[in-house]
Every structure is written in C-alpha cells, then in structure tokens.
Amino acid sequence: MNKLLFALPLLLSPFLLSAQQIAIQENYLIQGKVFSVKTSKKYASVEGCSKIALSKSKVEGFSFESKTSECTLFKKVRKIKAKQGFVSGTK
Predict the structure, then answer these.
(1) Contact in structure between 49 and 37 (CB atoms under 8 Å)
(2) What gap in Å lies between CA 90 and CA 82, rounded to an integer?
(3) What is the pLDDT of residue 37?
(4) What is the pLDDT of residue 6?
(5) The domain spanning residue 77 has which CATH number?
(6) CA angle 10, 15, 16 (to 5 degrees)
(7) pTM, to two decimals
C-alpha cells in the first residue's frame, strides 16, 4: 500500500502537466527576455507556437507574428503591449 501511495504522484504528473493552460491575446506583443525564436513550418501558426511554449517549462509566454510566421518564446515576460499583427500567450 505504501508503495502505491509513493508511486501515485509519479503516475499522475503527466496528466497534471498537460492540463496547463495558456492565455492567448490577439493584437498584443510580449516584451521580455527571449528564450528562443522559431521559424520552421512546424511552429508557423499560433497553434504550433503555443504548443511549443506549453512544452517548455522555462517559457512564460510567446508572441507569434502573422506577417513573418515567426514564433518568439520568452523565458521572462516584462510587458505586454498592443501591436497589430501579433498574437501572444502567457502561462
């Protein structure tokens, strides 16, 4: 029984991590400390950009520029400002 109670948090942790949400805002740009910039087709959408942001524990948010299909991941969000053509999300 004790072994089961010890293993339970380990078994449930993948489900708890996948339940994390991201708040998406259209026409907003994040300013902060950049973690990474993604330009490949895999991340060339808001959906792809938000998925990679959620999968990285050190990332606090992302900004996706529609015109260039560039996904910028941020490890520190300092400010969010209104900017046409961008979609941003924060954890």
Answers:
(1) no
(2) 14
(3) 98
(4) 45
(5) 3.50.4.10
(6) 85
(7) 0.79
